[in-house]
Amino acid sequence: MTKTIGYIRVSTDKQADKGVSLEAQQEKLKAYATLYDLELVEIIVDAGESAKSLNRPGLTRALSMLGKEADALLVVKLDRLTRSVADLGKLLDSHFKTSSLLSVSEQIDTRTAAGRLVLNVLASVSQWEREAIGERTSVAMRHKQSKGEYIGGKVPYGFRLVDGELIKHESEQRVMSAVKEFRKAGLSYRAIIQELEARGFKSRSGKTFSPMQVKRIAA
User: Fold this and answer.
1) CATH says 2-128 is which class?
2) Which of 11, 21, 99, 103 is catalytic?
3) Among 5, 99, 192, 201, which is disulfide-ready with 66 (CB 3.0 to 4.6 Å)?
């Protein structure tokens, strides 16, 4: 029989207090261990812990027992272990090269070649999904920005935020036009600052422009 550590987690204190999710996970681990002839050394619980970090007391203890008191870690689902592809990769490299990882829901058992293949495929698909979402978000943000819509962060120079939309600010737009013309004429950033001062132009804070501010405006 493979000596196995069970690991279960709930992310909110409310779930932990009710114990419903914890009890359900425990029952699933016990049933799986019986079915596949695993010796459950202990079931370790992280109650009210987020999967955003691997720095969880229960998980730290469970991982420390691998290779000593147990040869495998059993979870109900991979997201009980981590929701991060990067963190899963770290765990695979640091703990599951010599110890096994088993998951009830995904039917993963890295003691077998098929189990290792399934885990690698799932990790790759998760990585693809994350990158695809990132790309779609980036495209959407660029589209909103091209239409003059506010996408968060500091309001860019030359605009003001009005009812969620970026509206051109006349005086700042004049500064932008002047800076671009000066730059086109070959003036240095410091020379441009002198020209702006001579015309009475000030930064948004009412001070003299810095070379970095002029550089950003000219970009």
Assistant:
1) alpha beta
2) 11
3) 99
Residue by residue, DSSP assigns 122-143 as HHHHHHHHHHHHHHHHHHHHHH
What is the chain's pLDDT, residue by residue, as a tens digit (219 residues)? 899 999 999 876 555 445 558 888 999 999 999 999 999 999 999 988 888 889 999 999 999 999 999 999 999 998 899 888 778 888 888 898 889 999 999 889 988 888 888 877 877 776 777 677 777 766 766 666 666 565 666 777 888 877 767 788 888 999 999 999 999 989 999 999 999 999 888 888 889 999 999 998 888
Domain spans of the chain, in order of start: 2-128, 159-218
Give the contacts of 117 (CB within 8 A, at least 6 positions apart).
none
- Whether the pTM exceeds 0.70: the reply is no
Residue 128 main-chain phi, psi, to 5 deg = -65, -45
